[in-house]
Amino acid sequence: MYDLHIHSCYSDGSGRIEEIIRKAKEAKLKTIAIVDHSIEHKFGLTEAKAKKRQEEIERFSSKYDIEVLSGVECGILADGEIALPDFKFDIVVVSVHIPLSTDEYYRRILKCIKKNEFDVLGHLHSNLFGSVDEDIGKDMEIIDLLSERDIAVEINTSHDAPPTTFLQLCGDRKLRYSVGSDTHVLSGIGNVRRGFELAKKFLPGGKFILDGR
Ligand SMILES: [Zn+2]
Ligand SMILES: [Zn+2]
């Protein structure tokens, strides 16, 4: 099992790197990604913090013998921009974190996918920041772009997103997908089973992001 979206105390999570890695090992996870919020937040992962976190990731992933990816979660800002610290991450997730109108929501996401390099589109259509109407035409545009640019759609078990209505649209497309708990506390690490079940059910033609690396 894999959990590719875990926040640490390097942004707004409560777990320290060693605690997270130890917990992941106990949960028998094969690979995790520690994904902290980026620099659009005051508490976000600056370049200096990313370097320091990397040292800890390397030290404790070898101590506990588990693969740990070094990740960041960028908010999708006005005009589809993202703010990334100058650091080479293993995995870059981008997500919307503020309430937006349906039009603006789609506009930002579509622009963001077209103009940025990243790996995963996080918690699409999450209801946590206010809900947007699902527009099938726009959703299909997103799916086409993700597929064209080989970007993974994330199945996020904290946000319970994307909804199954969106996953159904993906059909048997060979879309990449990622699965993450998006936990900010140690107890949520590895809470991903439902995400993998959804992937199996709705993305039969899909490919897990770590397959074929
Ligand atoms: Zn998020
Ligand atoms: Zn997150």
Distance N terminus to C terminus? 17 Å
Number of helices: 6
Low-confidence runs? none
Q: How are helices and strands ordered from N to C?
A: EHEHEEHEHEHEHE
Helix content: 25-40%
Ligands in the model, by name, code or SMILES, are: zinc ion
State the CATH superfamily name: Metal-dependent hydrolases
Portion in beta strands: 15-25%
CATH structural fold name:
TIM Barrel
Layout of secondary structure:
Layout: E1 2-6, H1 17-26, E2 31-37, H2 47-64, E3 67-75, E4 91-95, H3 102-115, E5 120-121, H4 136-149, E6 152-156, H5 164-170, E7 176-180, H6 193-202, E8 207-208
Parallel strand pairs: 1-2, 2-3, 3-4, 4-5, 5-6, 6-7, 7-8
Helix pairs in contact: 1-2, 3-4
Task: Provide a compact summary of the structure.
The chain has helices at 17-26, 47-64, 102-115, 136-149, 164-170, 193-202, and strands at residues 2-6, 31-37, 67-75, 91-95, 120-121, 152-156, 176-180, 207-208.
Please give a structural write-up.
- The chain is 34% helix and 19% strand.
- It has an 8-stranded parallel β-sheet.
- The chain has one domain: TIM Barrel, CATH 3.20.20.140.
- It contains 6 helices and 8 strands; from the N terminus they run βαβαββαβαβαβαβ.
- The protein is globular and about 50 Å long.
- By secondary structure, the chain is α/β, with parallel strands linked by helices.
- The longest helix is centred in the first third of the chain and has 18 residues.
- The two termini are 17 Å apart.
- Bound molecules: zinc ion (ZN) (2 copies).
Any key phrases for this structure?
binds zinc ion; 213 residues; 6 helices; alpha/beta; eight-stranded parallel beta sheet; TIM Barrel; 8 strands
